[in-house]
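Hi Y.,

Following your request, here is the sequence exactly as I used it, all 212 residues.
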Amino acid sequence: MDLFSILDMGGIDLLLSRDLASEIKKGLDADTLSKIERDLFFQHGMSIKLSIEHFEKLHDVIKDHSNIDIKNFEKTCLQKIVQIFRSDNHYEIDIISPSLSEIVFNYFGDMESRKILLSIMNEPLTVPEILSKSGILKSPAYRKIENLLLDGIILESGKIMTNNKRVSQYQCIFDQVNLVMENGVYRIKALVDSKYFKESSMYNFGLLEPEN
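Below is the corresponding structure, written out as tokens. Let me know if you'd prefer a different format.
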């Protein structure tokens, strides 16, 4: 079994799940939140964070327990984290959440993580290929790749046959990353290939609509 095959790679959903779950929790009263968390667990075995990767389930459970304009509520929560624009075959995401910007910034600020990310920014590679191209030692590389997967910065993009085994390939979710510094604060602007948006449960639910 591939080292990381047990991970559920959710792409853009996973990248946004931590902050979006937090915003959803903050936007609900305590009683409603408790009921939603209870039903998600007993009906689907999920937390709010995990349900972001299966967004229709989360939407339906919120709908069962709230009379708010749910679509507008979800969109408002998302807009506190990112702004999304269409750019040719890509989507540009402007990460306005300080915590998510810091996660991305820290990965690119760490030399070994940055080498891993640059090696798979424009092409998918297997783990041995990542090790070879990045020049990172096996032990720290495996740990860093796992962390990058868990935070949605990279994802499993497919499988290939090698030595009669199906082996996973991994790719950075970003095709380009820019650091923007204004008025004493910084944020991340990044390009994401449209195929990763189209694989997203939030996109298919109509939530990741671009601003233009």
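The longest strand covers residues 154-162.

Thanks again,
Q.
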